[in-house]
Design brief:
CATH class: Mainly Beta
Structural class: alpha+beta
Number of domains: 1
Protein name: Glutamine synthetase
Shape: globular
Distance between the termini: 49 Å
Number of strands: 9
Keywords: Signal
CATH topology: Lipocalin
CATH architecture: Beta Barrel
Helix content: 10-25%
Organism: Pseudomonas frederiksbergensis
Strand content: over 45%
Signal peptide: 1-22
Number of helices: 1
Radius of gyration: 20 Å
Strand order of the largest sheet: 1-2-3-4-5-6-7-8-9
Length: 125
């Protein structure tokens, strides 16, 4: 009887989880291997993330701007530096610095935008 109850509860929880999954807004569909993550969202935007040691290689396609882009990030202790280039010629640079559970981010681009924002594991960005 105990096993039947466990199986019933497990089946019920799976049904609830599947129902909840159906209510989640459209999320990106991703596939993953040991070092590579590749995703496509419902709008057609696509990106991939490849890790080699402490270096992260990002590649993507942005539907709205109809442009391809690439970004490389390198981590040195609590600092991560990144540089990127898009197919329309825009380039950007920036860094992220971890301080406890907070990340301080700065960036600037050749398109004239720059900024600073802070993210926390508790409150988000």
């Amino acid at each position: 009887m105990g096993n039947v109850l466990k199986c019933s509860l497990l089946s019920l929880s799976l049904l609830i989880a599947v129902d909840a999954w159906g209510q989640i807004p459209n999320l990106a569909k991703c596939t993953r291997s040991a070092n590579l993550l590749a995703c496509v969202d419902p709008d057609g935007n696509a990106y991939s993330v490849n890790t080699v040691g402490s270096t992260l290689y990002l590649r993507g396609f942005e539907v709205a701007g109809k442009r391809y882009w690439a970004q490389t990030s390198s981590r040195y202790g609590q600092l991560t530096f990144f540089t990127g280039l898009a197919s329309d010629g825009e380039a950007w640079v920036g860094y992220s610095r971890r301080v406890g559970w907070t990340t301080i981010n700065r960036f600037s681009s050749s398109g004239g935008s720059s900024g600073k924002f802070t993210c926390s594991r508790i409150t988000g960005c």
